[in-house]
Structures are given as structure tokens and as C-alpha cells.
Amino acid sequence: MEWDKIAHREHPENRIDMEDPVPYPTTDDAPTTRTALVVVAHPRRDSLTAHIAELAARRLTAAGYRIDLLDLHAENFDPRMIAADLPEWGNREKTYSPEAETHMQRILAADVIVPVFPVYWMQVPAILKGWIDRVWYYGFAYGRSRPRLAGKRILWLGLAGAADDDAVVELMQQALSTQLDDGIAYYCGFAQSSVGLLAGAEEKRQRLDDAGNLLLDEALTGAVRDTHYAELENRALGFVDDFLAVEQIPA
Predict the structure, then answer these.
(1) Would you say the pTM of this structure is higher than 0.70?
(2) How far is the C-alpha of 2 from the C-alpha of 110, rounded, in Å?
(3) Which residue in 12, 13, 164, 193 is deepest, having the highest Cβ count within 10 Å?
């Protein structure tokens, strides 16, 4: 399967209407009005990141969620801070820029948020960090005794080129969990936050030797490549399933 040629489909009003959703066990009385905001932070629509985001969206759709797909690059989101979006510490009710306010409404409308992104330097990419900096503002995401995001849940899916068995993967997981679960989600009142790290995302998996030199594995080909990426897909869906299995905590 040619992962670098996966087609990205456009959908009206940023909604995904998935055909043949990835199966997920549901009950007849499961709510169908819940919304999942799936945030894609990769410049290429045919990327593995976009593909994993689509798989996650399918699984969420099968579990009864309506999908709001936010492709930060496709929507030309500007991650740079502007003067209109600087907090006013004495005014929690400040109206921010139209772009920021629009994104705030999409967040408020979502029950769960699933950012999908490549891992750069053990961090989220700049456009995703800028989305948090420009949208998750004082008075909106924090700064209240009862956060406006209280009770929401978030699953961060990060794709990394490091080989699965490289020791750096554990450090990467710790770094991302500290930044995203503790530094952002907990601070903003989320009821649940977890990081699903998908190592081994590159065809030439990366690792460091004892001297700190970067080594590249041989490129995966043929059936070995297909098996590898099928397993990576299954791991991604496993993270989504585990996330969905956690009972939602009332706000």
C-alpha cells in the first residue's frame, strides 16, 4: 500500500461523512450528538499523519461521534501571535480576534479533541503549538475557577520516526506527557488527557547509538513494509479504543 499516496477527501463544512467506518462496538442507545474535533497538524494531505487522523475519525464516527475536521494547514491557520490576541489579565471576558474566536467556538462545541501530529524535537509542531498559544487563551481555556473546558477529553496522537525499540522513545513519551497532559490539559481543566505515541512512522526508522550518532535502518519494502504499517495503524486504533473505553467524567 502506498502510504505517501493516500488521498485526502474534502468534506463540506469540515465534516467527515465516513463510508465503511472502522468497526467499533456500540450500543443501540449510544448518544449520536457528541462531537469530536480532530485536529491535523501536517502540511501534506497525503501524509501518514493525515491518514492516521482519518482512521481515528472513522473510529470515532463508528462510536457515535460527529466529526469536525480541523486541518490547520488546509485552513491557513496563522500560528503567529498578534496584538489583538494578547491577554488582558484584568478582563477574562475579552473578545479576541475573529479567527481565534471561531476556533474557540469549535473547541467549545466538541466533547473530545484529537490532535494528530508529527513529533518534532520531542514537541508538537509549531502550527499546533501556535494554535494552542493563539486560541487557548486566558478567560477561555484557563483563568477561571471553573474552566470552560472542564469535562472535555483529549487524545494526542504523535507520529515519530524513531525506531520502536530506541531508548529515546520512552524519553519522548515522558516529555510529551509532561507538556501536553500536565502542562496544558490539566491546567485547562480537561477531565482526561492521554498521549498515544506512534514510533516507527518513517520507512527508514531512526535510532541513536551509544555515541549519539544518528543511524537509519534499511528502508522497509514489500510485505515487511505493509505489515509494519498495518501494525502502526492497529496501535493508533488501539489508542483511540482505550480512550473511548474510559468513562466520561461529568464536568
Answers:
(1) yes
(2) 32
(3) 193
